[in-house]
Amino acid sequence: MSTIAAISTPAGVGGIAVIRLSGSEAKTIAERFVRPLSDHKATYTPFVADGDTVDETMVTYYQAPHSYTGDDTVEIACHGSLYIQQAILQHLIAAGARLAEAGEFTRRAFLNGRLNLSQAEAVADLINSTTEASNQLALSQLRGGYQQKLKEMRQELLDLTALLELELDFSQEDVEFADRNRLLSLSENIENEAMRLVESFRTGNAVKNGIRVAIVGKPNVGKSSLLNALLDDDRAIVSNIPGTTRDTIEDTVTIDGLLIRFIDTAGIRHTDNPIEQAGIDRSMKAAKEADVVVYVVDATDKENLNNPNVPKIQGTTILAINKCDLIDHINTSTPNHIYISAKTGTGLDELKHAIVAPFKEVGDGAMLSNLRHFEAMKCLLAAIRQVRQGLEQGTPSDLVAIDLRDAIHHIGTITGEVTTDEILGTIFSRFCVGK
Ligand SMILES: Nc1nc2c(ncn2[C@@H]2O[C@H](COP(=O)(O)OP(=O)(O)OP(=O)(O)O)[C@@H](O)[C@H]2O)c(=O)[nH]1
Ligand SMILES: [Mg+2]
Predict the structure, then answer these.
(1) For a substitution probing ligand 1, which of 225, 237, 244 has the most ligand atoms within 8 Å of its CB?
(2) How does pLDDT run across 280-331, given as a tens digit for each residue?
(3) What percent of the chain is modeled with pLDDT above 70?
């Protein structure tokens, strides 16, 4: 396998930079420039090329298979000037290494069995995670997450399918090798697990990519004031003229380790103004796409307060009764509400808590956050449902076997037992060069 090299630290000037070299010739190539290396030890050594010292470096050698990639690997820590980084890399390439492609180190780790596919994907998520919660999610996936359970289920399914297929070879005789009850209960277990994971994707995805919170309601209730208060920034224009906000305004903030994207929207009312109407259409769209809708009503507006026109959405809706500083007696029959004042700040902590609460329970790997896994999981769910129904309805075994193979294939694409170049291509293209 060819020896690859890349700068593994971010592009730019830093205190130090790390250049990684991996492949069968890694040690030989490195030792043309540095002092002899010993396994798993860092060597303080000048990096000398053509008689000139390029830099004083710290070089670590990891002998195969005990390295990140599983191949011989050398990591050269040098001073982080752009000149030094580039010079060292170019010397390594002139000496026979090849520039690594995006994700190639991790791809090799996968090919050498150092990581499974979902762990490789988790590494990409880990690198890209920006908040504590998305970091936790990636870490739990790196540790195995829901993979282990799926793997065991797949193995059992494989065994039973083999038995079922064996029966087909004896189709003249009336034999039954595969225990139908076991097969049925296994299919049910897989169906339930797949269903749970498919359902967890909305939450998992929100934790990973940010929770979309739309602030909607009638004009002038204080939506933009609330946005500004939540962001602690003068982001949106506030005025006492109803219909101030025309376009959606978004910004992000971290609450309790979760990335939250707040979306202020145009107040919803009947209007003949086409521009305002376009804004209202956007409000409805934002509400539909949101993970959480904060529906704001004005505490002084008795009618709206008791019959709030809360849009129906998939996610959670929180009713925020704003301007509570203007009333002294609070009274409403509406359930699930929080009293707030965007002006004084009353109730904002409670509101923030209500927004993040459903996303705080990041169980150990219990959540699906990867789009590829989500798509495969939906295919698995469809296939295993067919199997379950087939078994219940006494469908001929050869047809059940086809659905079983289909289900096994889809579990395999998630756990990494089944890979195609296409799958590998999509996964590793998400990495940057040097990882
Ligand atoms: N007393 C009081 N006034 C508030 C509060 N929140 C907002 N206001 C006032 O209510 C008026 C409308 O506020 P906005 O934030 O512009 O309301 P909006 O819902 O964004 O309105 P549109 O963009 O027109 O839909 C402004 O005069 C605010 O100062 C509050 O909590 N208490
Ligand atoms: Mg507004």
Answers:
(1) 225
(2) 999 999 999 899 999 999 999 887 777 777 777 777 899 999 999 998 766 6
(3) 96
Residues linked to residue 99 through DSSP beta bridges, in sequence order: 5
83-109 confidence digits (pLDDT tens) = 999 999 999 999 999 999 888 999 899
**Ligand 1 atom closest to 225 (CA):** 15
Q: How far apart are CA 112 and CA 77, in angstroms?
A: 25
Q: Copy the structure tokens of residue 81.
A: 């000037």
Tell whether ligand 1 has an atom less than 6 A from the beta carbon of residue 79: no
Instruction: Enter the pTM of the model.
Output: 0.71
Determine the distance separating the centroid of ligand 1 and the alpha carbon of 323, expressed in angstroms. 8
Confirm or reject: Cβ of 218 under 6 Å from ligand 1.
no
Pairwise CA distance, residues 309 & 217, whole Å: 8
> What single letter denotes the amino acid at residue 413?
T
CA 408/CA 153 separation, integer angstroms: 9
- CA 237 – ligand 2 centroid, Å: 7
- Give the closest residue (by CA) to ligand 1 atom 17: 222
Query: What pLDDT, on the 0 to 100 scale, is given for residue 334?
Result: 65
Residues 6 or more apart in contact with residue 354 via CB below 8 angstroms: 318, 338
Q: How far is the CA of 235 from the centre of ligand 2 (A)?
A: 11
C-alpha–C-alpha distance, residues 72 and 155, integer Å: 33
Q: Which domains are present in the chain?
A: 4-100 (3.30.1360.120), 147-206+370-428 (1.20.120.430), 210-359 (3.40.50.300)
For 122-160, what is each residue's pLDDT tens digit?
Answer: 888 888 888 888 888 888 777 777 777 888 888 888 888
Copy the structure tokens of residue 298: 């004005």
Query: What is the Cβ-side half-sphere exposure of residue 397, based on CA atoms within 13 angstroms?
Result: 20
Ligand 1 proximity of 416 Cβ (cutoff 6 Å):
no
Report the separation in Å between the CA atom of 262 and the middle of ligand 1, taken as the mean of its atom positions.
17
CA of 254 to the centre of ligand 1 (A): 24
Which tokens belong to 312? 């129906």
**Cβ proximity of 419 and 120 under 8 Å:** no
Ligand 1 pocket, mutate which of 215, 216, 218, 220 (most atoms under 8 A from CB): 220
